[in-house]
Write a structure and sequence with these properties.
heterodimer, A: 466 residues, alpha/beta, Rossmann fold, Ubiquitin-like (UB roll), de novo design (two linked rop proteins), 3 domains, four-stranded mixed β-sheet, 16 helices, B: 206 residues, alpha+beta, Arc Repressor Mutant, subunit A, Glutaredoxin, 2 domains, 8 helices, elongated
């Protein structure tokens, strides 16, 4: 049970009340050291795993219904099962390239508890026969790289990584690898390209997912940092204990970063599937409401790529299925809260600009489309919008993601929800993600766009001469 | 404008040896080159190409994709001000404007004394601490205009001891002692299941 306040040594993290599966050690200032890890049950999960057969470890993870925490929310145990039998070697790639706007849970997990991640990675390697592990950390996260380097050095010296781990047959190297600043590399096939030394451009899938054809063309499991960080607890306590938290389809806990116009922004470990957005945004144990004197206008429920939600959606649970049906996604656990002072056009422009800057350039609809979206939004924002601009934005959006785009219901205007996910004319979801802020903002706040465009028409044109 | 120093070549060879294919070491080696010179010099790229066995054009191809690699000289301190959505809501753009005014250069520019480069960057994963910035990838949270002025003074006076020169990321490197090394597993060679899997037949049956 937490003290329900910020921890001075872990900026941003709120040690709130509730079950702690991945952030349990954060209360200790030295939680990143091997000494503290070992004193608080670190590597017990690995020891316990090594006493059982690899197959049974896979079964426990499958039974626990551990959902991937990178954004797509696919069950890790099922993903693990996609490795084709009899094809060797297999690799593990840890995705620590966290860059989704609003998201920062993996950075805290890497900085505050690197040994938990190392332990989780080794459990995965043991269960699936993964021969080598590459830990890909986002380039900008210097402290996380440093803490992991120190942790790996300690763990190697202690016989916890490398050859004959803990005196068993398990022999796996974990190689720390840094990125160099590219959002798209968080997409698993782009991550693999990057790890092969190439430009980080996604590979076409299906038919071949990385579990079948991945790093160097071999079966590769790509798992998010938070996903792997759950494994030590699950092995120590069992699938049933894990499923005692959260809801049936979304068990356990999840880390959410809530930022923007709330009284107490922070990263919270929250019981998955049962807590609602309202509890998280307004509850005393969490964000304690919108900043004084203001009210909620809209919020992004799952990172920059997610369609926006509005006050009507506050009572949805933090669970993938209902959120998807309501027209958005939980994504990477990033909630950005905007009050009534927020300019919808400006906010939309900023998120779209992110995708325009980060488009890798491989697919034409995204490379060209995101730039044009930014250009048009910029001129509307600057008061230079043209009468057909709103329709043109929607037309460009339709070229990247054809058909009705996922959006929340808007009862006041008689609009129904369009469920997630969107369709795409691109290899990866980056391009379609740029459409989320556009359709969300225009559908709900079309008048704000129109007002900016109309204001321009009213600017008197003075004759200049001669 | 230099090739890697002999000490860095030793480090580079250690890094290359950790990967099943040398080209995988390309990004780590470009970081090493940037750590040495503050930016990635042309000669360093050619040298990296020799070390990993690809053409200089391939190294440039990878290098130019990634935003952190600077192929020209930048300031000793690269100040990255986040203006993405969470920071924008709480004054990130105003902070960037203040930084530009104080230092007298626009985002992307470097001050005449070669000390500061300002960048307008995307989300740096400290959204609850907005507005935030990084100096050579070291965080500063809840930055006010006064905080920024103080930071500039501190950097000029050499008082910000947690901030290394541009190019240095982690100050500790991973090292693997020879007797602890499990060994790289090249994709072409290992065709058998790893030894800790008790029964490959059982695995195949699944």
């Amino acid at each position: 049970m937490g003290v329900n306040s910020y921890l001075a040594h872990a900026p941003g993290y709120v040690d709130n009340e509730g079950p702690k599966i991945v952030t349990g050690r954060f209360v200790h200032e030295d939680s990143h050291t091997l000494a503290r890890s070992l004193a608080t049950g670190g590597y017990d999960g690995l020891k316990r795993a090594l006493e059982q057969s690899p197959t049974s470890i896979h079964d426990i993870v499958r039974d626990a219904t551990l959902l991937g925490r990178g954004g797509a929310g696919f069950p890790a145990g099922v993903k693990w099962g996609f490795c084709p039998p009899g094809v060797w070697p297999r690799y593990l790639v840890v995705n620590g390239d966290e860059s989704e706007p609003g998201t920062y849970k993996d950075r805290l997990l890497m900085q505050r508890d690197p040994h938990q991640l190392i332990e989780g990675s080794l459990i995965a390697c043991y269960a699936l026969g993964l021969s080598q592990c590459f830990l890909y950390v986002r380039g900008e996260m210097a402290l996380a790289q440093e803490r992991i380097a120190i942790a790996l050095n300690e763990a190697y010296d202690a016989g916890l990584v490398g050859t004959n781990i803990l005196g068993t047959d398990l022999s796996v190297d974990i190689v720390l690898h840094w990125g160099a600043g590219a959002y798209i590399v968080g997409e698993e096939t782009a991550l693999i390209e990057s790890l092969e030394g190439n430009r980080g451009m996604p590979r076409l899938k299906p038919p071949f997912f990385p579990a079948a054809i991945g790093l160097y063309g071999k079966p590769t499991i790509v798992n998010n940092v938070e996903t792997l960080a759950n494994l030590p607890w699950i092995i120590n306590n069992g699938a049933a204990a894990y499923k005692a938290f959260g809801s049936e389809t979304s068990p356990g806990t999840r880390m959410f970063a809530v930022s923007g116009h709330v009284k107490r922004p922070g990263v919270y470990e929250v019981e998955h599937g049962t807590t609602t957005f309202r509890e998280l945004l307004y509850g005393d144990n969490y964000c304690q409401g919108i900043r004084a004197g203001h009210e909620l206008k809209m919020f992004i429920p799952g990172g920059g790529s997610a369609p926006w939600f509005f006050p009507e959606q506050l009572d949805l649970p933090l669970e993938a299925r209902p959120v998807g049906a309501a027209g958005s996604m939980l994504g990477s656990g990033a909630i950005v809260v905007m009050d009534e002072t927020t300019d919808a056009v400006k906010a939309c422009l900023r998120v779209v600009r992110f995708f325009a800057r980060e488009s890798c350039g491989k697919c034409t609809p995204c490379r060209e489309g995101t730039s044009w979206e930014e250009t048009i939004l910029q001129r509307i924002h600057d008061g230079l919008g043209r009468p057909g601009d709103i329709d043109m934005l929607l037309d460009i959006a339709d070229n990247i993601s054809p058909g009705p785009y996922p959006t929340a219901a808007d009862e006041a205007n008689g609009l129904d929800a369009v469920p997630f996910p969107p369709k795409q004319t691109t290899i990866c979801p980056l391009g379609p993600s740029s459409v989320a802020p556009i359709t969300s903002a225009i559908r709900r706040f079309r008048h704000e766009f129109e007002a900016k465009i109309t204001a321009r028409e009213l600017i008197p044109v003075e004759a200049t001469g001669p | 404008m230099s090739r890697l120093s002999p000490e860095n070549v030793t480090i580079a060879e250690e890094i290359i040896a950790r990967y099943p294919r040398p080209k995988s070491a390309l990004i780590p080696l470009l970081h090493l080159a940037q750590e040495q010179d503050g930016h990635v010099a042309d000669d360093a790229m050619t040298h990296v190409a020799e070390l990993v066995g690809v053409t200089p054009a391939e190294v440039l191809g990878t290098c130019s994709f990634y935003e952190m690699f600077k192929r020209h000289e930048v300031g000793t301190y690269v100040v990255n001000v986040c203006t993405n959505i969470s920071c924008q809501l709480l004054g990130g753009e105003e902070l960037l404007h203040h930084a530009e005014t104080v230092l007298g250069v626009k985002a992307g520019g470097t001050t005449d004394d070669g000390l500061f480069t300002i960048e307008d960057v995307e989300c740096i994963a400290a959204c609850t601490e907005a507005p935030c910035l990084q100096v050579n990838y070291r965080y500063r949270y809840h930055v006010t205009n006064d905080d920024f002025d103080q930071l500039v003074d501190d950097l000029r006076a050499g008082r910000a001891t947690d901030v290394p020169e541009h190019g240095v990321l982690a100050t500790v490197r991973q090292r693997i002692a020879g007797d602890r090394l499990a060994g790289v597993v090249p994709p072409e060679v290992a065709t058998e299941a790893p030894v800790w899997l008790p029964d490959p037949a059982e695995e195949r049956a699944r």
